Amino acid sequence: MRYLTLAATLLTAAVAAPAFAQDAPDPAKVFARMDTDKSGDVSKAEWLAAGRKEAGFARIDANSDGKITLDEMKAAIAARAKKAE
User: Fold this and answer.
1) Integer CA distances (angstroms), 70 to 5, 23, 35, 45, in order
2) For 85, which DSSP code?
């Protein structure tokens, strides 16, 4: 009986684990949603229009040029995922 209970517990854990795992968002999809004018970068206006905070824009805009590129977005998402580990 204990083996059956153990097997059921392990099966439940194996099935439920993916539901609780939270993968980092796809940077390209996030970027595409925010780049509303399709200029290839996200301006501060687009960032704020997406409901994001100004402080987040400054953190991601690594070279402080007033726009976020896809590479900057990817680096920020990767850093956040690594920090969460």
Assistant:
1) 49, 18, 10, 16
2) -
Nearest-10 crossing angle of helices 70-84, 27-34: 130
Q: Measured between alpha carbons, how far is 77 from 34 in angstroms, rounded to an integer?
A: 14
Q: pTM of the full predicted structure?
A: 0.68
- Over the stretch 8-39, which tens digit does the pLDDT of each residue have? 444 454 444 444 445 656 889 989 999 999 99
Which contiguous run of DSSP H or E holds residue 58?
helix 54-60
- Phi and psi, residue 74, nearest 5°: -60, -45
Q: In the structure encoding, which two tokens stand for residue 59, read together?
A: 């953190």
- Which DSSP string corresponds to 39-56? SSSEEHHHHHHTT--HHH
Which segments within 1-85 are labelled E, that is strand?
A: 42-43, 67-68
Report which DSSP code applies to 36.
Answer: T
Task: Give 35's DSSP letter.
Answer: -
